[in-house]
Write a structure and sequence with these properties.
Elements lengths: L8 H56 L2
């Protein structure tokens, strides 16, 4: 970003505030993305557990003779 020679103090403050806002938004988005990743991992774990439980129930059913 080129810095014009004649920026006033107020323009510098405004540009700095805008940059901080953009940085805050990027950080918040990053946190949400990380949280979504954790949720997906949890759902995958649950899905795996359900599949294992289903296999176990089928195996028990075969052994019992249903």
């Amino acid at each position: 970003m080129g810095c014009p020679v004649a920026m006033s103090n107020q323009e510098l403050v405004n540009a700095g505030m805008k940059t901080m806002d953009e940085t805050d938004q990027a950080i918040e988005l990053s946190k949400q993305t990380e949280q979504m990743g954790r949720i997906v991992n949890e759902l995958n774990t649950i899905q795996f557990s359900i599949k294992k439980a289903s296999q176990l129930v089928k195996e028990i059913g075969r052994q019992v003779g249903f």
